[in-house]
Amino acid sequence: MASSAKTAAPKATATKKAAPAAKSAAARSTSSTGRSTSSANAGKGAGSNAAVDIQPRLNQQQNAPSPTQRYGTVSQRLPIGLSEPTRRDSVTMLNQLLADTITLRDMYKKHHWQVVGPTFYQLHLLFDKHYEEQAVLVDAIAERIQILGGVAVAMAHDVAELSSIPRVPRDREEAPVQVSRLLDGHQRILKNCHDYADKADEAGDDGTNDLIVSQLVRTNEMQVWFVAEHVVDSPLTQAE
Ligand SMILES: [Fe+2]
Q1: CA 115 to ligand 1 center in whole angstroms
Q2: N or C: more exposed end of the chain, with fewer CB within 10 A?
Q3: Ligand 1 center–CA 108 separation, angstroms
Q4: pTM of the full predicted structure?
Q5: CA of 109 relative to ligand 1 center, distance in Å
Q6: Residue 80 three-state SS
Q7: 3-state helix, strand, coil in the chain (%, to 5)
């Protein structure tokens, strides 16, 4: 692989150098004939358009320049009327909520696949519904982070490092254990939500406060209700 990449490099350089010449040729073609290059070449057969190199420039990550923005910074300033310290604090809080919400979302899908027992069908459907709702929250949190000028945590290994939800075993577990793990995850997120909503409110970050209260708190509380009612100790066939 390394040798083929090396041999491919001069070709890419040659293509780069050829591009301006091709552009100027296109410009000449347009100015002298009044027709675009592509329409001028249309009758010359397939592959005759010299202005377009159809070879994708692959493997650009191998010699990547420095990132456009480092994680943990709030370097972009959109005109949203919030100070840098406020945006930085909100981004930190939201990345914690994002890592925990991604974890809870994925726990729902795991339990959707692995659930077993007499409540299989309803839990199978319910867990997937909650997974979809958590996925909506994930997107809303991540996009709020970007609006504030931060960088949203995204990949599984980074999420695992940041999340406050304890690691879930790979094994298949009984439904009540699954439910208990989900309820614990919800509670951790909700406790942080109440704390962070207050802080965002005090700092004047109304958008973050509204996201946390209107979407995160409401959705998580509703899901807690639907999940927790499954682990009530209730006789199935006989009233006592
Ligand atoms: Fe499914």
Answers
A1: 11
A2: C
A3: 11
A4: 0.78
A5: 8
A6: coil
A7: 70, 0, 30
Tell me, what's the pLDDT at 119? 93
If asked whether residues 154 and 195 sit together in one domain, one would say yes
Ligand 1 centroid to residue 36 C-alpha, Å: 51
Is the distance from CB of 149 to CB of 87 less than 8 angstroms? yes
**SS3 of residue 74 by DSSP:** coil
Counted domains in the chain: 2
Q: What is the mean pLDDT of residues 58-81?
A: 91
- Tell me, what CATH number does 207's domain have? 1.20.1260.10
Q: Are residues 103 and 13 in the same domain?
A: no
* Dist. CA 69 → ligand 1 center (Å): 36
Rounded Cα gap, residues 235 and 196, in angstroms: 40
Q: HEC states along 3-46?
A: HHHHHHHHHHHHHHHHHHHHHHHHHHHHHHHCCCHHHHHHHHCC
- Note whether 59 and 142 are same-domain residues: no
Q: Are 55 and 89 contained in the same domain?
A: no
